[in-house]
Amino acid sequence: MLPAVRKVNRRTNESGVTMALDLKGCRALVTGGSSGIGAALAVALAERGATVGICARRAERLSEVVGRCMEHSPDSRMWVVNLADPDAVDKLAVDVMDAFGGVDLLVNNAGIPKRRHVTALDIDTITAVMHVNYLSPMRLTLDLLPQMLARGSGTIVNISSIAAKLSAPGEAAYDASKAALTAFSEAMAVDLWEDGIRVMVVYPGVIDTELFTLPDNDVPDLPVAAEPVSVAVDAVLAGLETGAAQVFVPEWFHGVAANKEKDVGAFLEGTASYVRQQRHQKQQEQTQ
User: Where are the alpha helices (DSSP H) in the chain?
Assistant: First the structure.
């Protein structure tokens, strides 16, 4: 077992602002680590010297990813867990603490989309999405927070979505869950600022993962080309290097979100017009 108490080294700039998290020897837990951003980030952390724990539901996928992590960090581990189960989340926290002696970096990455028009949603679906995308990561965070506080250091990375900022049409349940994650993260960052705990929120846009091809979801109408997963991983690593509070992937989405806030009504009207045009175009194609 790794040491139970260790102070993670950080650098500060001339103004005393927290900068890089030293990944060498860092104990990291990445949820949703069987594919996509989670898998690629886990391997990247291991390559940089972190001992990485990953979790997800698919054992075979996890085994492949943890094998790649162990090539660089032999003490890396995996846990097969359904994060929709509150008891399983609590047990995961205990198991990770037993294995690693502590967690220096927590990456809450796991999530589900459930793309459906709001008229096709029901409260059970909304509740399920909220459990996986918001309540589960917050439960895991609260489970692991005491040992960070006792040590006086820790980093929490919450993978939100640009949907939390732009309220993507046809994704109301997903948008709301990610917006809740964002709001909690920012308030938590303030609450924990003097305790040496840093929180970073990541806003991926359209990333080339299976999130957009999962069954039981409406086929998305993507207005921009998908970015490779490596772009998201590089952005997260850069954010850890600079001690960023938020990271947009790609960065130009930050400007889109800022423009929305200048006139929310106009933004929503423009989005509705775009959706209407796309629907009309599809109807024409189907009749030809």
Answer: 36-47, 59-70, 86-100, 123-130, 136-151, 163-166, 172-191, 229-242, 253-262, 264-287
Dihedral (C-alpha) 78, 231, 114, 199: value to the nearest 10 degrees? 70
Q: Is 174 a catalytic residue?
A: yes
Q: Which residues contact 55 (CB under 8 A, 6 or more apart)?
A: 29, 30, 31, 32, 33, 62, 78, 79, 80, 81, 83, 92, 110
Q: SS3 for 8?
A: coil
Dist. CA 144–CA 138, nearest whole Å: 10
Burial class, 202, CB count within 10 angstroms (exposed 0-12 / middle 13-18 / buried 19+): buried
Domain positions in the chain are: 22-251, 262-288
Fold of 22-251: Rossmann fold (3.40.50)
Identify the residue whose tokens are 């069954």.
215
- CB-based burial of residue 33 (10 Å sphere; 0-12 exposed, 13-18 middle, 19+ buried)? buried
pLDDT tens-digit map of 150-205: 999 999 999 999 999 999 999 999 999 999 999 999 999 999 999 999 999 999 99
CA distance 169 to 224: 15
Instruction: Report pLDDT digits (tens) over 28-73.
Output: 999 999 999 999 999 999 999 999 999 999 999 999 999 999 999 9
